[in-house]
Design brief:
- The structure holds two protein chains of two kinds.
- Chain A is α/β, with parallel strands linked by helices.
- Chain A has four helices and seven strands, in the order αββββααββαβ.
- Chain A has one domain.
- Chain B folds into two domains: about 70 residues, no CATH class; about 140 residues, no CATH class.
- Helices cover about 55% and strands about 5% of the residues of chain B.
- The chains are: A alpha/beta, B mainly alpha.
- At the A-B interface, helix 1, helix 2, helix 3, helix 4 and strand 7 of A face helix 1, strand 1, helix 2, helix 3 and helix 6 of B.
């Protein structure tokens, strides 16, 4: 359930009340690209994932962590600030949040051309505008990895 | 999440995002978004359901084939496998209420951790991984840190951590330990059932609520915000400390 009607009145109010504070992004940019079968795909999650050996996210963090494509699921943990989303799914199966195994399967089937070597993680509980600088930096890294399709996965 | 779509796309990187709250995504208007009717925390639907996860992923990837945007499409199929806990549930591990009174909160918490250890180890063996470890390498370090606050003699946070970050991470490790242990028990408990059990029946929940109360009156700038927002789910706080 994440239909608005599935939430309590208070939760509906909480989620809808945030909208008034969203920045106005104006017209959405829309970058064309090659056919899906020619694309190289990376995952960028805002689930606050990181390597067990990496720094956990601090409150309000707008930076990102690097997730190597060959990192075993056992090496990835979550330090998201929020306690208002389910973590049992992630605990059981990382692909419910970070579907790298599924993406590799689709690449093997030829649905996409390839999977990026490196993926990235932000921690979603932060100020929207604060993400801009690091997102710009991230775009440069993604280009160097020849990524032309990014899947954005929230929690 | 929608903001990242704008920012990356402005730099020339095509993006497609999962939307968990449609109204928010419609307001931000990212370049490509697929709204899914799944619970928060499960953007690809359900754990252990690779076929379903692949179908969500295929639908998300298909947005890259659109000629113009912004695109906000709906994935209308519900996630499989999450049992409905509306009718109640029974967790095989039940902690007697009088145990907490005899041993005090600290003793009750330690006793629960010990009683759950075989279930936690079973979960670890089955899954080959644990999500405990944000604070320390084992849950024991997290328990010790939380109890030091309840004893009135707070441990110093580990080097480089604020007091608030240490408490938050210790509490998250304890919660993860309980959730993983409960999920290993027979009956394939739903996430809702595990939440209900944790917040209604465990000394760990009472410890977290007590820590929340300490944070709220703390002068430490890193602890006070925790008490308001980041230790207890809003639905639990609204119900006076019990999961509804």
């Amino acid at each position: 359930m994440a239909r608005m009607t599935d939430f309590s009145d208070a939760e509906q109010h909480h989620h809808l009340d945030k909208i008034k504070d969203f920045p106005d992004f104006g017209e959405a940019p829309f970058v064309a690209g090659p056919a899906l079968t020619k694309r190289r795909v990376a995952i960028v999650t805002t689930a606050g994932l990181h390597l067990r050996s990496d720094r956990p996210f601090d409150s309000g963090a707008a930076d990102y962590r690097v997730i190597p494509g060959d990192a075993p699921a056992a090496d990835l943990i979550m330090s998201h600030l929020s306690v208002n989303f389910d973590r049992t799914g992630f605990q059981e199966d990382i692909n419910v949040v970070f579907p790298l195994d599924r993406l590799r399967e689709l690449a093997a089937e030829g649905v996409v051309a390839s999977v990026a070597e490196i993926h990235y993680s932000f921690m979603g509980a932060t100020q929207i505008r604060a993400l801009e600088t690091k997102a710009r930096e991230l775009a440069g890294l993604l280009k160097k990895d020849r990524v032309d399709a990014v899947l954005l996965s929230p929690v | 999440m929608g903001a990242l779509g704008h920012y990356l796309e402005r730099e020339g990187i095509p993006t497609a995002q999962i939307s968990l709250i449609r109204e928010q995504t419609a307001a931000i208007r990212p370049p490509r978004a697929l709204w899914v009717p799944f619970m928060l925390g499960r953007p690809f639907g359900a754990p252990g359901a690779p076929d379903f996860q692949r179908s969500v992923l295929r639908a998300l990837l298909s947005l890259f084939e659109r000629a113009a945007g912004p695109v906000l499409e709906d994935f209308s199929e519900d996630a499989p496998g999450e049992p409905d806990a509306e009718g109640g549930f029974a967790c095989p591990v039940s902690f007697a209420a009088d145990q907490a009174q005899r041993k005090g909160l600290a003793g009750a918490l330690r006793s629960e951790i010990a009683q759950l250890s075989s279930w936690y180890e079973l979960a670890l063996r089955r899954r080959g991984r644990t999500t405990v470890g944000v604070f320390g390498t084992t849950v024991d370090a997290a328990v010790r840190h939380v109890l030091s606050y309840l004893d009135g003699h707070p441990e110093d946070p580990p080097s480089g951590m604020t007091a608030g970050a240490a408490v938050k991470r210790a509490c998250d490790d304890i919660k993860a330990y309980y959730s993983e242990a409960a999920a290993a028990q027979p009956g394939n408990l739903s996430s809702r059932a595990i939440e209900q059990w944790f917040w209604s029946e465990t000394a760990a929940a009472r410890a977290l609520l007590a820590i929340r109360d300490l944070c709220l009156v703390s002068d430490d700038a890193s602890l006070k915000p925790l008490g308001k927002l980041s230790l207890i789910p809003r639905t639990v706080s609204a119900a006076g400390g019990r999961q509804t």
